[in-house]
Amino acid sequence: MLKRLYTTLCSLSLGLWLLAGVMLALAVGSFSRASSEGGGLNEMPLFYFLKEAPLSFSWWLWICVALIALLCVNALLCSIEALRKKGRSIAPHLMHAGFLLVVIAHLISAFSGFKQQMQLTEGGSIGFPDGERVQVERINFEMGQMGMMKNYRAELRVGGAVKEVQPNQPVFHKGFGIYLKHVELTPAPVAIVEIHREPGAMAALLGALLFTAGNVMLLARRKGK
Amino acid sequence: MKWLLITSALLYLSSFRRPVFVLALSCSLIYLASRGVGLGRLPLIGPQDTLAFFSCSIGLMALPFVYSRGLSGDRFFAWGCGALAGLFALFALPFPTLNMPLPPILDTYWFELHVALAFFAYALFGLAALLGVLYLRREERQILDLQYRAALVGYSFFSLSMVSGGIWGYYAWGTYWLWTAKELWTSILWLYYSLYLHLRLKGQVWDRPFAWLGIVGFFVTLFTYLGVSMLMRSSHSF
Questions:
Q1: pLDDT-flagged residues of chain A (< 70)
Q2: What's this model's pTM, rounded to 2 decimal places?
Q3: Do B73 and B154 lie in a common domain?
Q4: Which residue from A19, A166, A211 is facing B159, i.e. has the nearest CB?
Q5: Among B47, B74, B101, where does a domain finish?
Q6: Is A163 near chain B, with CB under 8 Å?
Q7: CA dihedral in degrees (B175, B176, B180, B182; nearest 10)?
Q8: Structural domains of chain B, count
Q9: ipTM
Q10: What distance, in Å, lies between the first and last C-alpha atoms of chain A?
């Protein structure tokens, strides 16, 4: 019985069906209100959303999470089985490991991610859990030729130092990222700031690097074949 | 310089011979280079530039296949690649060019890398579909091997595009992942080609479904690129 379950769990056919199932669940989800702007899914960690949202709203996500969990078990067991046999390339297994790490990264962020948006004028400040405050000292912007804002940045006082935050250049402090989303000019300059904590980011990057290394090895192995 | 895009489209559509195909690709490359020099960045914003970039990517990615030993004498394939590239060059024509500077959030190499790699991948998925059609006509396994190779390289570019997009997202928005229609369809496309590549392990009995999967994949690609951008609201919409 257990052997049969193990054989099923590490079979290629199961992997293919699971891939198809995840695709189907995601396709349904892409038309759902949950994944649309204002659906709330991007405003909070995934597991908090799953706990709070009604099942009629989030059923496709539950299916997706369950199928991905099974797919991870399938990928892990497939790799273990293949590595037991000698003379096999490790490239596909590095790719599997990369995929598993990315899923773990999502899992970590799904439990303890954090996001909050705030509007701050010059002199306004962001409070951290330990009581420390990061103050917005100055908001700067440059206007382009077509009346569009060419660039904008804000100077933050973090501890004793002044750090500059601008689009694509967040300031990281005590595990949080401070992002400047936009600047409003009237009636007084206001910085629209988002605070993020993405605890899975490092695992995701590591997974991506592992996956890429395996992918490059696979390409090199297939070259000319 | 729009005449260069029109010329490339017309040449692509009549590329029964390989030198004509190369000439069409040259026109398309010169057009994109002139746009790039004028804008001071890669032309990757708005439907006109992205469709022209996609057309050029198809030409560029097709070149090694058009000159490969297995397909060198095949006029259908060279014309098929040309027709595909020409079609997207024609689609680009009615749209206006957007000559504005990049919004600050897009002004990063991660964005350019992310988009360019995605188009190289889309182009290779298109070529894999053409090779699928060719295999169904001729039943030569060598063609199926080429389809697999096109899809594998496309999958590699696509994975790198997702990685660079994740890094860009982390620096731009504070997260490497957002639950929006585009991200979901990007994941669907990635999973689809993961399934396609794994199906190869099932052996030769699955050769015909494998070829069909390569063809259908291009429709999933087109929906991910055009369908989602035009029909669904997302941060990636045109």
A1: 37-38, 146, 223-225
A2: 0.93
A3: no
A4: A211
A5: B101
A6: no
A7: 150
A8: 2
A9: 0.92
A10: 40
